[in-house]
Task: structure prediction
Amino acid sequence: MEKKNTPPKKGTESAIDQKLAPQPENAKTESLIAHTADATGESMTTNTGLAINDDQNSLKAGDRGPSLLEDFILREKITHFDHERIPERVVHARGSGAHGVFKAYGNISKATKAKFLLDTKRETPVFVRFSTVAGSKGSTDLARDVRGFAVRFYTEEGNFDLVGNNMPVFFIQDAMKFPDLIHAVKPEPDNEIPQAASAHDTFWDFISLTPESAHMIMWAMSDRAIPRSLRMMEGFGVHTFRFINEAGKASFVKFHWKPLLGVHSVAWDEAQNISGKDPDFHRRDLWDAIESGSFPEWELGVQIIPEEDEFKFDFDLLDPTKLVPEELVPVERIGKMTLNRNPDNFFAETEQVAFHLGHIVPGIDFSNDPLLQGRLFSYTDTQLSRLGGPNFQEIPINRPLNGVHNNQRDGHMRQMINKGKTSYGPNSLGNNDPQQVKEANGGFVSYQQRIEARKIRARNKSFFDHFSQANLFFNSQSQPEKNHIIDALTFELGKVKTVAVRERMLGVLLQIDATLAKMVADGLGLQVPEGPVLNQNIPADGDPADYAPVKGKNAVKISPALSMANTIKDTIKSRKIAILAAEGVKAQSLNAVKAALEAEGAVAEVIAPKLGLIGDGVEADQSFLGAASVLFDAVYVAGGKGLDAEANALHFLNEAFKHCKAIAFEDGTEAILAATGFSQKVKDDPGVITGKDMIKNFITAIKGHRVWEREKSRLIPA
Ligand code: HDE
Result:
């Protein structure tokens, strides 16, 4: 039931003038007020507004008798409940949303006329939904997977959706293959196993026969697929889009999101543990950060490529399995997005938001990327079954701010009450309203690309270099990152039961990098097969020789921007630090450490053998039973009675060490360090801190995120 809300304030949808009205601080948030309900202090009613007297008992023939069909209150309640669920998204089912704002830097008018990218004074409201791809709605956040990074800008010219991922390329080149890819990665159809995982036969069967996926596979097997936080991921538009400027000149554009907290990941073993200890880890992390005022921020970056340069690259700009190396075309930062408000209602907002990369505004247009072109069909189509009909744009989270006027009418759940007799055009009975808009006044006109072509089902040969950028990505990684890719492939292929699929995949890896293939083969106890890689993406009448992958040149051999080792490492803001303590802990120094960490924006929690008071005014936030090292970024050992003999504390420390985290030992806790499994390994380890300048050194180590070099010995029990 809608509460009698405070009337929507000035600047809500209805009040906004289509032409450049000054917007309130966040016009979208205000526009949602009219649709929110708050039961605080209200009486309970049925959906028709009838006050309910008894919500505890159904109507019966006698208090021990059968329930009566007459009970319209019971029937209404149960009926609504029965229909609470809608189909989950066929991909990207598991997601988390947040509201925020975008502010342009105002430096891109040379390339685009999109108003929200030009006006530095205006804050454009945004709604963002992050997601995993393969898992169901209730699956773990920490699956090895691509992350969706979908951003809606509620601009003065309508909604612009940048529906991207946290990886800049994709598995396939043509929309025609998308259902195959997704069928291969989803749980296998006979037993619906495994959930939210690509480590199974059908996925690798498809991949090993689809060499165009090689580049994306490198990304998916890298640590990019197991982010530390949704707030610490890059985002990419993936496809090449077009910008159009005021003079009508077009250029190609690639979109990037650069997180101000840097790009960081967890370890794979850690990810698997988090999935058990807190499957909502990413969702909770995003929610908590926003609730605590630690607002995540990203800069929007663009790579602009003049139309004249379309054929200057050794790959095709229309091929979504390729990125444009930042060394060739630098990323220009053109604005900042800040996420500053959690949704009020998950279903109404995060679940019902209906993104579509076809939602664009003047100044932005599409390219002929065949993956992009197919997506232009899919997104509206999928909402029709997911949200139940053609009026999903009327759901509050989907409404544009500048109002909707056209001759579309009726359909399931129509909300709008259209006045007047005319719902057609041209009309003379209604002044021919709503009127079309001249381009000069903001009417959208598609970019007039010249096309002279034969109608044909085919792919240009410029799409056939499948391995050069896969090799560029692998080459650009630090040694620990390379090790992680090798481990990930060994893990995934190890779960594949069909040996022929494993072998075929080794053949693909050989085309990317011989050492990579050899290391994975060793782990699998197999030999790397020689011979050409099969490409099965060919039509029935195609000659396989015409479709063989070709070897490109790779103008760039190493791209530092592709390695997370080169990301920003200058803050511990919002990092979670565990302080291990037991009864009798020195309260003064514990409080000093906590204060120092919190002063840097970190979140510190005291973990002890039991809850309650453990020292002079010190309370445990969690006991070892409820806490786990994998849920923290670093550990401070504050000490206390018997901590060196506390098995849970030692396990906590060993595991933190294994996952390459910073660990500091307070003076007087030497016995605890001695009892760990890594006491003999701390010499020259920059992440194990003792002695002088402890806090300073500890903070520096946390800024470094992880001491990845530590992990290879694999000798730490945990
Ligand atoms: Fe999507 N994708 N996709 N996708 N996609 C969907 O739309 C589809 C692709 C992406 O948080 C669906 O509303 C096709 C690339 C995100 O609500 C569906 C193809 C990229 C989200 C769909 C692709 C994406 C989706 C499912 C190949 C990165 C979640 C529910 C032609 C650039 C949006 C929905 C959200 C969701 C189709 C490929 C990103 C079925 C056919 C490439 C972030 O329409």
The chain is about 25% helix and 15% strand. The pocket of HDE is lined by residues 89-92, 95, 129, 131, 148, 150, 163-165, 170, 175, 178, 238, 353-355, 371, 374-375, 378-379, 382 (CB under 6 Å). The chain has three domains: 95-398, 471-565, 569-713. The mean pLDDT is 94.
